[in-house]
Fold each of these.
Amino acid sequence: MSITPLMPVYPRCDFRPVKGEGAYLIGEDGSRALDFASGIAVNILGHGHPHLTRAIQQQAATLMHVSNMYGSPQGEALAQRLVDASFADTVFFTNSGAEAVECAIKTARRYHYVNGNPERTNIITFNNAFHGRTLGTISATNQEKMRDGFEPLLPGFAYAPFDDLEAARALVDEHTAGFLVEPIQGEGGIRPASQKFLAGLRAICDEHGLLLVLDEVQCGVARTGALYAHEHYGVTPDIVASAKGIGGGFPLGACLATEEAAKGMVFGTHGSTYGGNPLAMAAGSAVLDVILEDGFMDQVAATGERLRGALEQLIPNHDDLFDHVRGKGLMLGLKMKVESRPFVAHLRDNHGLLTVAAGDNVVRILPPLNIEQHHIDECIEKLSAGARDYEYEGKPMVKAPVAK
Ligand SMILES: *Cc1c(COP(=O)(O)O)cnc(C)c1O
């Protein structure tokens, strides 16, 4: 038998973390790495944050899980806090991002169904989108690498180029239920939607009675310096899928919706055994305690500006490798002129810096949101050293020093 006990769907690397301390991960062999990946935008408070850890420990000892058949003081409290802090009137808790997107899609279809328009089932999504790995959410992307061999997929999706408002408009017909879009594409390569695009989708929705569904699984929960990224655009969605950072490392997701958009989601239409259990609610609540504190979001925005500035200063010295920096807050992408995946591996293996590769040859830089200046300095040192000793095909033989 040659298959590994752990199903081999991930190309796992030699770094094998066994402990986390703030913005650092410690490997099985004792090596230390600066974690500017954060479990792909999950560990927003870093590793071992005392408030989050204590909340989970105490709740685990008090009451870990009960069925959603019972009243949930813990769920009601966290839902109320999310409602108070966002556009939403109601929240469904899930265990992952894909489940939050599934709930969003179901909510959108039910809305039209109860409105007497059961033919409005189709969701328009965008090229290079990532919405998760369930059958429903892979149907919502047209990326072949995620769909190959899993067909037949769910009908009811159409795909337009990202940030192309006219192409999106052209797909709207009498079967359209709404749009599903990431305000800032994550896996697709840290691509922010333009103001014109997001505001334009809202206007098309208003004109045709469609729903604007945002996938903020990666860009939400303070990552960009606002609780949700759509706040920067001044665009109000109908439904938002949230996850990743929302549990700070505990598996938690949420589907947030307005009262109007959620009007079809009545008793019996949806459910989850674990979704919103007391342990998950304790984690989510501890994360909100920290990120909703006065000044936290401003701090994320300011830290993001400093990190971005430092990255931009690095580019002229390595302009054979780096093109530009994009993104918002602490969701940053370094666009490379060469393949980003092997460079990310080089930074990890030879310089103890963890980042994440993304589409379009981007290095994703997603640190914990509570990093300090010395973490930024260390990241820049490692990135700079990594760029200097990176061997790749087509590397210039002698690099002339750049005058400052
Ligand atoms: C990660 C991600 C998902 C899927 O989340 P899972 O928790 O892996 O199911 C969905 N949408 C976006 C934008 C993501 O980044």
Amino acid sequence: MPVSYLGTQGILNGLSVGDAFFHRLGATITERTYCDSGSCTAYAATIGATAGVDPESIVHSRYIIIWACNMVSTNLHLWPIVAEAQKRGAKVVVIDPVRHKTARRADWYIPIRPGTDGALALAMMNVIISEGLTDEDYVREHTAGYEEMVERAAQYTPEWASQETGIPAEDIRTLAREYATTDPSLIRIGVAIERHAGGGQTVRSIACLPALVGAWRHVGGGLLQLPLWAHPVNWPAFIHPEMATPGTRVVNQYLLGRALTGEGGASGATGNDGVLDPPISALVVYNSNPMVVCPEQEKIARGLAREDLFTVVSDHVLTDTARYADIVLPATTQLEQHDIMFSWGHFYVTLNTPAIEPLGDAIPNTELFRRLAAAMGFDDEYFTLTDEQLLEQSYDWSAPAMEGITLESLRETGWARLNLPSPDEYRPHAEGGFPTPSGKTEFRSSALEAAGNFVVPLFRQLCEEYQPGGVVDPLPHYVAPRETGDSHPLNLLSPKSHAFLNSSAGDQAMQKRVQGEQMVTLHPADAEARDIVDGTYVSVYNDRGRFVALARVSDEVAPGVAVAPMGAWPKNAKDQSTVNAVNPFVFADLGNAPTFSDTRVEIAPV
Ligand SMILES: Nc1nc2c(c(=O)[nH]1)N[C@H]1C(S)=C(S)[C@@H](COP(=O)(O)OP(=O)(O)OC[C@H]3O[C@@H](n4cnc5c(=O)[nH]c(N)nc54)[C@H](O)[C@@H]3O)O[C@H]1N2
Ligand SMILES: Nc1nc2c(c(=O)[nH]1)N[C@H]1C(S)=C(S)[C@@H](COP(=O)(O)OP(=O)(O)OC[C@H]3O[C@@H](n4cnc5c(=O)[nH]c(N)nc54)[C@H](O)[C@@H]3O)O[C@H]1N2
Ligand SMILES: [Mo]
């Protein structure tokens, strides 16, 4: 079974490198729904695979809602644009259970109970519709299922949503009114918005809002999720789904601990509710560090420690995962390898040219799989392609967005903006034209109605054949958080570390000095009730596991909420385990997204 994710994120060496090789080999197929998969299913099912608002258009926005995104830490290149809009008079609203670096710069910070954002979005719809604040022409021409949505939204009153979210009903009304009546209005959703039982429906509801108020009419108005949709990347040329053997089993990487220990209980993506048969006997890990990034950390450690498991890890550094490997292979970094970068956050394509020759015996992932394929006697032409030839295949150069951009021009300039209208004019859906079956924003989603739950191809090694399925109510609705506070009262969040990139750089001295060790922040009232003092070690635990962290006591977090950033390495942690020791493997409602924010724990001094 391959285990991999983004690594340095290039088209050659990132997401899909190795997929063709493992298809040809007949290995277990792996599904990688690490990041925004649930959000993407919901988004695509509502407004289609559109890039949405150009991040650079946001200077023109007048009302900016930053929803579950700690931009100042995680989306640094966007913050100056938001700050410029704010300077020009835009109101910046942050909705987050944590008053973080970004929230402190907001004009209005709205604390929310984790996992209840769907209730807030639906109540905003309720207010906008009942107070006649909709853009009637836009709704009539460019949305589908509006009449049914009106009926549905009637039950989601601000008073009801207030009970769920902890936000006063009057604040919900004010937010809805200001959002509907200030143009251009912009919503930026972060990744954590998908990470609870109802994350998919939450994104569905939010994605409906811009059409309801006609925000798409204006430059800087609408929704910003992942601009990657603008990049015409030629993924099939790298994945080669036709090389896969039909019927090959699929294991989602979030179930890795279960897959390796044979404990079963693996649901959804395995297509197998019990124990894997045959078991996984060889693992090849590259571009990823599952010991840190996957839930059920103790099971992963136990699985990786199996004497009968043959493990190969390719990485830059000796990660916690690599320490379990039978063979460690040195990989080149971005400074030593050819690549071309699409982007999760902007409309530019970048050519990555090596600055130095590879150090030592390090090789790029592309070369690793060329050599393995040759050793195995795979004679498909794909396995003989050089990096230069792979660069030629990386983008669909004939796509309108690539007009005027060639490999040769990129060699001159290094980077280029996709061929799209200027950010001062770009209004992708002013006249509708959503890439959905109806061409409209779909309150009633025809994709969910036809297919049920699905995973968008970007997150799947296999392009065809396998889909999770399952019937889904095609109208947006509320799904409450799954875990309740009965035995474990605190709701734990695990957002990104400010100074690490996921677990990358997590063992570098300079970054560790900035980030400190694995910590957990809790509210003074929760700390006092547990005799927990700021700066002391505490045990964070539930039925799934436990880790020891340094306690921070701060009213940045609401009572009942605890925050332990992800990215710290177990080997550097007090008790050799970090936040993913307590997180569940259970998926959210759409797109097999993780439920990192739907995690209950108790905390005690040690
Ligand atoms: N410094 C740094 N930057 C990074 C990364 C990194 O590791 N470090 N990783 C990169 C990657 S891969 C990604 S995906 C992005 C992600 O970057 P973001 O989109 O910012 O995602 P997160 O850091 O997971 O969470 C953002 C916020 O969501 C809040 N949150 C958690 N649960 C909920 C909820 O239920 N409701 C609401 N309203 N808020 C909630 C958290 O408190 C947190 O403040 O960052 C990228 N940039
Ligand atoms: N609790 C919790 N868990 C999470 C998240 C969360 O918010 N909370 N976020 C999730 C999200 S959004 C994401 S994106 C994932 C991230 O999961 P991963 O993609 O696994 O992220 P990293 O920890 O950065 O691991 C990448 C590894 O690849 C190596 N690498 C980099 N470039 C190359 C290369 O060119 N070749 C090779 N062979 N190796 C390379 C790096 O050194 C590093 O060890 O984590 C997920 N896990
Ligand atoms: Mo991510």
